[in-house]
Design brief:
- The chain is α+β, with helices and mostly antiparallel strands and about 150 residues long.
- Helices cover about 30% and strands about 25% of the residues.
- It is built from 5 helices and 7 strands, in the order αβββββββαααα.
- The strands form 2 sheets. It has a 5-stranded antiparallel beta sheet with strand order 6-5-4-1-7, with no helix packed on it. The protein has a two-stranded antiparallel sheet with strand order 2-3.
Length: about 150
């Protein structure tokens, strides 16, 4: 009985090797963030075809061990399939991180151009002006807190 107890203690103290899931970056440049949010500070960047190790999932966000620094990346920027840059496969022809985010919202440059073509009588000058505005993350976070806004992935 004592021998069985010793064996069970030894087995329980042995390191458990988990099979790590490797993800490939499928955008030209992916942003590793400090928190699972598009408002999280960018702590590192990864490029097309680079591999990261999945640590855990939280909604549409993936915590990863990136080559230089761990952090969070949106699921739209990664693939479980190996992504490789091969001759004739120009990464600049792929989607950028911004395009993937817009596509996730159902909007891209093609949709915008089609809408403008169908509504030629409308002026988009104010929309174009608004697209030039930039707001830093600290101001966005203050706005969210002051307004009591909450939501997944903020």
């Amino acid at each position: 009985m004592q021998r069985l107890l010793k064996i069970s203690v030894m087995v329980s103290l042995m390191p458990v090797t988990a099979l790590a899931t490797s993800l490939s970056i499928q955008v030209e440049e992916g942003q590793i963030r400090s928190t699972p949010s598009f408002l999280g500070e960018i702590v590192d960047k990864v490029v097309y075809g680079e591999s990261v190790e999945l640590v855990k999932e939280q909604g549409p966000w993936r915590m990863v061990n990136a080559p230089r620094k761990p952090g969070w990346i949106h699921q739209s920027a990664v693939s479980e399939s190996k992504v490789e840059l091969t001759p004739g496969n120009d990464v600049s022809e792929g989607a950028s991180g911004k395009e993937i985010a817009l596509a996730g919202k159902g909007f891209n440059a093609d949709v915008e151009n089609a809408y403008k073509a169908e509504h030629q009588q409308m002026s988009f000058a104010w929309v174009d002006n608004m697209e030039k505005f930039t707001v830093n993350n600290a101001d966005i976070e203050q706005f969210i807190k002051q307004g009591g806004l909450r939501g997944a992935g903020l």
